[in-house]
Amino acid sequence: MNNPTVCVIIPYYNGSKYIERSANSVLAQTIVPNEFLVVDDGSSIEESEKLKYISEKLGFKVLRKENGGQGSARNFGVENTTSDFISFLDQDDFYLENHIEILLSGIEKKDPHFGWVYADLAEADEDGNIIRWETVKHHSSHPKRFINDLIGNDMHILPSASLINRVAFKSVGGFDPQFTGYEDDDLFLRMFRKGYKNYFLDQAVTVWCINNNSTSYSIKMSRSRLKYFKKLVSFFPDEPDKARYYMKDLIFNRFNSQFIGEAFRSICTSNTPQSKKMSQHKNELVDIANQYIKVMLNNKYLPLKIKIKIFLQRELINTKSKYILTFCYFVYRKIVK
């Protein structure tokens, strides 16, 4: 570990629009990675050919596999590299030039339980124009030292701004491929539970480009959120003897507005392209919300006040009526004010 090695893995899926920018950011590092691999996760023939051309022009390695999602592609990349530390990068984001150098400086070599070091991200638009230089620390506390911070809130730990100990990654089996969203939170939660520590560096190392066509803004994310919710519920049953009520104190506060809010917005759609896209999945989003509500109402430790709130929300969204929901929301806002 006196001279740690680093690999960079980019999962690629029909991303020729972005891949040259992201690959160039890896190749331009002040400390170059020992290994650099792009995993083509079952892209179309045309997109695969574009990737092949760019890889030959820039000089990086490409491996192709059947489509299995980003987590599966990342796992495949890890299996085909050997470096001590793993750094991921999404195809539509890019590294700052000292990304690897900064993260290497954050490795706690004397900590036998070191799991990963991570840093902040700069937020940008799809074209890479910077919007702000600080992102994750405005949404969550860092580093992670208490399990409640990992369950009760979105973690805001991005693999694209992290350097992960291969031993820690392999010890939990890597990413859970069932997820197409929340796979990052799931990975870091499992490494934390396994006994691996994390360290946070308060500076941006990656540019996170907000792309409204990404998985984060799609029905895939909604489906994956439900899967992750159910996994958390199974992993963290309430422990009344220890006064630990994960459902009412953490899980409800984290997910209720997301499940109910998405169903509500799919019915009361606006004129934005994103809203119109999600409205096409109105029935499924209402069904997802109903599955979430069923689990919550079956929890015997959830206070009656919260159960009544959830019950009323269920009755409203199941009308699937824009007019009823809009009227009720208007009345609610008047009462609150």
From TrEMBL:
Superkingdom to which the source organism belongs? Bacteria
Query: Gene3D superfamilies, from UniProt?
Result: Spore Coat Polysaccharide Biosynthesis Protein SpsA, Chain A
Q: What is this protein called?
A: Glycosyl transferase family 2
The record's section on CDD domains has: Glyco_tranf_GTA_type
Q: Which InterPro entries match?
A: Glyco_trans_2-like, Nucleotide-diphossugar_trans
Q: Where is the Glycosyltransferase 2-like domain?
A: 7-170
- UniProt GO molecular function: hexosyltransferase activity
Q: List UniProt keywords, sorted A-Z.
A: Transferase
